[in-house]
Amino acid sequence: MMPRRVAITGLGMVSPFGGSTQDFFQRMLAGESAVTHYETDDKPHGLSLPAVRCTQFEPTDRIPRPVLGTMDRFAQLGMVAALEAWDHAGLARSADNPAAGVAWGTALGGTLVFEKSYRDLWLNGQERLPPTAVIKGMNNAASAHIGIALGLGNSCLTYTVACASAAVAIGEAFHRIRHGDADIMLAGGSDAPLAYGVVRAWEAMRVLAPGDVETAYRACRPFHAERRGLVLAEGAAALVLEDWDHAMARGAAILAEMVGYGASCDHTHLVRPEEHGQVRALRQALDQAGFAPEAIGYVNAHGTATREGDPTEIRALKTVFGAQAEHLAVSATKSMHGHAMGATGAIEALITVLALQQDAIPPTAHLGIIDPLCAGVRHITHAQRGTGLSAALCSAFAFGGSNAVLAFKAFNPV
């Protein structure tokens, strides 16, 4: 059986700006930051840091209250993004659709419900927890709720691969359609990492960017010579992947085509990224897509603004693209939407698809002085429009050494 073509027919997300997916992308093109200063009154030590929060998120608009009561915030975010993508694809809801499935990514799952449980037991003197605590906290809660809501009878998969979770979910969903195991896959990711204990754990690693009320918006500065670290974000995004012939037969609007997926493991260190693993994932994605390096017009980089991560990623790109690297458009949109952990690969895949559809490349915001160790590619510091963009990559590189690269190309109706 010949590999099947895979169309992207729907997109959905929970935007930190509170608007639509299209509004979010236009703000990315404008270089607008969603990072604000986040402060809590926890005793004895409150949180005070730059972060990205979906403060206007109102799940009751899309999720019935009885169902809402069985969901942690990460699952609520995921459900709303998934429903939006499904509706955007023009797909009907069904009680049983055995040809459609879900593949979801989350790094942390229901961390918030577990943290609340600890507080209730140890601080508030409760002797028991509600029976919903288990189903709220399980990592596959988002995918399960999505499958139930939409009657998805094919696979119901959850991937927890740290910051590569959503990218891996999308890549594995792509393979299921490509190899004939499903006609439609709803793929994406969601995370809500601003739990007190999670933030304190990241602070202990000394990789969070500092900032106050006035400077928080520019706290995340990938590839900058004076970058100070990453910015935690909550969020969710989803893509509908569909067998090409199935999409064409129902007259679906095709946004882009997914053509490749590369996955690798550094297998050397839990937290230190390695160039060789990233190179393998990049080359796998290119080979599966049938692309020569010079065909790629844009890379949405993982770019977390950490001291070690950014130069390693640039070295990997230079190894793969060789002499073409200096012409390769690269941007790290985490400078604006932050690092949503297991959801970030889906958010950045959505941005990459829209970049191809609209022939518009978003910038790395706040990139004034490029670190010499990050030089050698064409860093995009202001939106580029009308460049004839036809093929792009989206990279996600995670703790544990897991690497995932997604390859897309623009839809040409001719």
List the topology elements.
Layout: E1 6-14, H1 21-29, E2 36-39, E3 48-51, H2 65-68, H3 73-88, E4 100-105, H4 111-123, H5 133-137, H6 141-150, E5 156-159, H7 165-178, E6 184-191, H8 196-205, E7 235-243, H9 244-249, E8 256-265, H10 275-289, E9 298-300, H11 309-321, E10 329-331, H12 334-337, H13 344-358, E11 360-361, E12 378-379, E13 384-385, E14 391-397, E15 402-410
Parallel strand pairs: 4-5, 4-6, 9-10, 9-14, 10-12
Antiparallel strand pairs: 1-7, 1-8, 2-3, 6-7, 8-15, 11-13, 14-15
Describe the structure in your own words.
- The chain is an alpha/beta fold and 414 residues long.
- It folds into 2 domains: 6-249, Peroxisomal Thiolase, Chain A, domain 1, CATH 3.40.47; 260-410, Thiolase/Chalcone synthase (Peroxisomal Thiolase, Chain A, domain 1, 3-Layer(aba) Sandwich).
- Helices cover 32% and strands 20% of the residues.
- The chain contains 13 helices and 15 strands.
- It has helices spanning 21-29, 65-68, 73-88, 111-123, 133-137, 141-150, 165-178, 196-205, 244-249, 275-289, 309-321, 334-337, 344-358; strands at 6-14, 36-39, 48-51, 100-105, 156-159, 184-191, 235-243, 256-265, 298-300, 329-331, 360-361, 378-379, 384-385, 391-397, 402-410.
- The strands form 3 sheets. The chain has an 11-stranded mixed β-sheet with strand order 5-4-6-7-1-8-15-14-9-10-12, with helices on both faces. Strands 2-3 form a two-stranded antiparallel ribbon.
- α10 (275-289) packs across α11.
- The longest helix has 16 residues, at 73-88.
- The protein is globular and about 65 Å long.
- The two termini are 26 Å apart.
